[in-house]
Amino acid sequence: MIKLFKLLTLLPMSAFATSEPFSTLDLTSHWVGYMALMLFVLAYILVMVEEFTHFRKSKPVILVAGIIWGLIGWVYSSQGLPHSAEVALRHNILEYSELFLFLLVAMTYIEAMRERQIFEALKVWLVNKGLTFRQLFWLTGFLAFFISPIADNLTTALIMGAVVLAVGVGNPRFVSIAFINIVVAANAGGAFSPFGDITTLMVWQKGIVEFSQFFSLLVPSLINFVVPAAIMHFSIKNEVATVSQSKVDIKLGGIAIVVLFIITIITAVSFHNFLHLPPAMGMMTGLSYLMIAAYFIRKSERKLQQDGFDVFKKVANAEWDTLLFFFGVILSVGGLGFMGYLALTSETMYLSLGATYSNILVGVLSAIVDNIPVMFAVLSMNPDMSLGHWLLVTLTIGVGGSLLSVGSAAGVALMGQSKGLYTFGSHLRWTGVIALGYGASIGAHLLMNGTLFDVPV
Question: Hey, where are the domains in the chain?
Answer without folding.
Answer: 24-454
